[in-house]
């Protein structure tokens, strides 16, 4: 087993501890040496590190330093060899597991897109074989230049048989017809690409202006100062959840510690869990905090209709809700700080047109793996730039579904929660905007939450986030056109909010970089300019990383990963736009239950929770208690039998083969930048297709 080297990897965590250096040699002929203090400086001097004058060197110390370097190098080589040895076996197991699960439910989703990519790949292989044959037989034609602007077409006497003649006919057809079609598509995508890049640039300029002028929503004075006469409004807090055993405890604990008068606060735990053992655990947690004087109630729906929207709608229909003025919503993995309500509720004071106050998300597992780091780049840009700029200049943005406070009157005037889409948060925000309500975004108020750590969870989340808006656009378009808001607000909703940022972005990303670019390698007459492939995408990636400067080393992986995710986003966009089956599919994002500083309070209540669970079981009838215990045992058995495992993603794998084939074809045309882009993008698709980017399960 290779030793731990104590290195700092850009995709991992800093595992160094202390200042001492320990060398452990696995060979029994060697001993263990600990280098610390003055001796360490002497050894460093042996390899060229500056030291004070007067200190000498010895051959023995220099030898130990060389042994240390050799041992580290051997450890690195052993680790690389172990990975290279284990990778083929792991990939083989994933292929077998995927083949076994292919007959289960869900098989066939995205089948049309997969068949298109697969057919494109087969044609690319045939085209590559044809081009290689032509190259080795000398049939290829010289590329046009400024001196000779037209291709040299061989005379009849130069044609070498029927195969050569067929190849020349194919080249003529390719140049006359296919090239024109590709050029039209590429110019259209380039136009969309430039427009979207300009939109991104304008948002960044707006963010810079906000920073320069220090524009942000402010609370006048200190409303909570003694003698201010501030009357705390009635606040309802809702925590919707569904089978989220890993995170329910920390979220309930954080919400119950909100600094607000207990007689002015009510907490609703809205449990849609189908597992009775999880229901019992959540009931016990609610009972524990109820015994401590917190005004908290537990609600459970037997029929989970409408998903999260149906859950919130059912909770808002309670009679006691009419006594409350505001409602704060937190998903099951969100942990607000105790002063959250004190930082958000006062913004409603003296602002009757304000309907929503949205806080920013902060993440407890940003540095967990490469996938979480790349997600952090996207979400930092979303909150720091998109939400903040739209909130400051337009008083409108999409509600993020959690970590926000609504004025209940705004919800009621807008029709309440509707179950027609899987993006109920965006739905209510659009309808509230059409009714004249304003929103503000608080960039300095952050709520802790968790990022998906596995690619499977992230992929399902992105599918819902990109199919839902297109489905909503179909439903909201007539209401937007007939609404009484100004024309420029209608244009902003239709052209920017929906079309440009929700439809055009995934469309051109997939079409330009995954279809047109590899196609131009087999039709070299329609070449994409270098600035489209390299310069502009790198500049846009640089702008995306600006809100999270610590992520700058990941600019190239981020660019490649965003192009890789375009196939998932494009598939989701099409399914939502044309109302396909997966557009109304809601899958709860898998959580890991990562800890944070608020877990100190959670740990302090472990014993109390056990007591509450015992008391709750005593209150249940004997038959019901036996049934609950039996269901809990069955749940534990299912968790023991069903093991989490990494998967194989066929669309990404076939696309990787397609891009690598196109990269091989580009070598025949000596297209340098195109080759490197296709090579690295193909490797990126390969890593994602083998599920090697996120959480790895042994």
Output the helix-strand order: EEHHHHEHEHEHEHEHEHHEHHHHHHHHH
Strand proportion: 5-15%
Structural category is: alpha/beta
CATH classification, class level of the domain at 235-452: Alpha Beta
* Shape type: globular
Report how far apart the termini are.
16 Å
Give me the count of strands: 9
CATH topology of the domain at 235-452: Spore Coat Polysaccharide Biosynthesis Protein SpsA, Chain A
Topology:
Layout: E1 21-23, E2 33-35, H1 38-45, H2 59-101, H3 111-136, H4 161-213, E3 235-241, H5 248-256, E4 265-271, H6 276-291, E5 296-300, H7 307-316, E6 326-329, H8 340-344, E7 354-363, H9 370-393, E8 404-407, H10 408-413, H11 424-434, E9 438-449, H12 455-482, H13 487-522, H14 530-545, H15 555-577, H16 599-604, H17 606-619, H18 622-641, H19 650-668, H20 672-689
Parallel strand pairs: 3-4, 3-6, 4-5, 7-9
Antiparallel strand pairs: 1-2, 6-8, 7-8
Helix pairs in contact: 3-19, 4-9, 4-13, 4-14, 5-6, 6-17, 6-18, 11-12, 12-13, 12-15, 13-15, 13-19, 14-15, 15-20, 19-20
């Amino acid at each position: 087993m290779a030793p731990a080297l104590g290195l700092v990897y850009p995709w991992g965590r800093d595992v160094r501890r202390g200042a001492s250096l320990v060398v452990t040699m696995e060979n029994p002929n060697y001993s263990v040496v600990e280098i610390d203090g003055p001796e360490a400086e002497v050894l460093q001097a042996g390899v060229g590190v500056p030291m004070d004058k007067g200190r000498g060197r010895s051959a023995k110390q220099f030898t130990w330093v060389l042994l240390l370097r050799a041992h580290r190098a051997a450890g690195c080589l052993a680790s690389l060899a172990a990975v290279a040895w284990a990778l083929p076996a792991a990939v083989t197991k994933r292929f077998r597991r995927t083949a076994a699960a292919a007959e289960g439910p869900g098989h066939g989703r995205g089948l049309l897109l997969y068949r298109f990519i697969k057919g494109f790949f087969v044609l690319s292989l045939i085209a590559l074989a044809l081009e290689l044959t032509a190259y080795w037989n000398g049939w290829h034609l010289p590329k046009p230049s400024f001196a000779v602007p037209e291709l040299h077409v061989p005379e009849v006497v130069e044609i070498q048989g029927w195969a050569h003649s067929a190849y020349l006919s194919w080249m003529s057809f390719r140049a006359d017809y296919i090239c024109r079609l590709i050029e039209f598509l590429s110019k259209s995508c380039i136009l969309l690409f430039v427009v979207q890049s300009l939109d991104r640039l304008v948002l960044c300029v707006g963010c810079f202006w906000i920073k320069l002028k220090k524009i942000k929503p402010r609370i006048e004075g200190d409303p909570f100062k003694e003698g201010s006469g501030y009357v705390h409004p009635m606040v309802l807090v809702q925590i919707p959840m569904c089978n989220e055993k890993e995170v329910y405890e920390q979220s309930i604990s954080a919400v119950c510690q909100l600094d607000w008068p207990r007689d002015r606060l009510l907490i609703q735990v809205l449990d849609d869990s189908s597992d009775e053992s999880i229901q019992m655990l959540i009931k016990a947690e609610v009972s524990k905090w109820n015994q401590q004087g917190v005004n908290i109630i537990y609600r459970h729906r037997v029929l989970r209709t409408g998903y999260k929207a149906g859950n919130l709608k059912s909770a808002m229909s309670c009679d006691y809700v009419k006594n409350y003025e505001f409602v704060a919503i937190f998903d099951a993995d969100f942990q607000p700080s105790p002063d959250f309500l004190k930082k958000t509720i006062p913004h409603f004071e003296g602002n009757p047109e304000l309907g929503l106050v949205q806080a920013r998300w902060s993440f407890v597992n940003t540095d967990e793996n490469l996938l979480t780091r790349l997600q952090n780049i996207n979400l930092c840009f979303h909150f720091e730039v998109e939400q903040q700029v739209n909130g400051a200049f337009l008083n409108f943005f999409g509600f993020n579904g959690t970590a926000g406070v609504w004025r209940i009157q705004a919800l009621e005037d807008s029709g309440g929660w509707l179950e027609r889409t899987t993006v109920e948060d965006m739905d209510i925000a659009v309808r509230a905007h059409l009714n004249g309500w304003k929103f503000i975004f608080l960039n300095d108020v952050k709520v802790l939450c968790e990022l998906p750590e596995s690619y499977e969870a992230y992929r399902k989340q992105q599918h819902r986030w990109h199919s839902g808006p297109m489905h909503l656009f179909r439903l909201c378009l007539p209401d937007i056109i007939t609404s009484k808001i100004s024309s420029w607000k209608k244009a902003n909703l239709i052209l920017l909010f929906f079309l440009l940022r929700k439809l055009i972005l995934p469309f051109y990303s997939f079409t330009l970089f995954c279809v047109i670019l590899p196609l131009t390698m087999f039709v070299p007459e329609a070449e994409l300019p270098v600035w489209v492939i390299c310069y502009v995408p790198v500049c846009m990636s640089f702008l995306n990383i600006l809100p999270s400067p610590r992520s700058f080393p990941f600019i190239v992986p981020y660019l490649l990963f965003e192009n890789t995710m375009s196939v998932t986003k494009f598939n989701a966009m099409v399914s939502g736009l044309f109302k396909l089956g997966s557009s109304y599919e809601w899958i709860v994002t898998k959580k890991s239950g990562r800890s944070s500083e608020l877990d100190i309070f959670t740990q302090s209540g472990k014993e109390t929770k056990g007591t509450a669970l015992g008391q709750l079981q005593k209150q249940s009838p004997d038959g019901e208690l036996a049934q609950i215990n039996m269901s809990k045992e069955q749940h534990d058995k299912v968790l023991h039998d069903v093991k989490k495992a990494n998967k194989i993603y066929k669309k990404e794998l076939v696309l990787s083969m397609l891009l690598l084939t196109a990269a091989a074809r580009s070598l025949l045309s000596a297209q340098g930048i195109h080759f490197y882009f296709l090579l690295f993008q193909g490797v990126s698709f390969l890593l994602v297709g083998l599920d090697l980017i996120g959480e790895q399960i042994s």
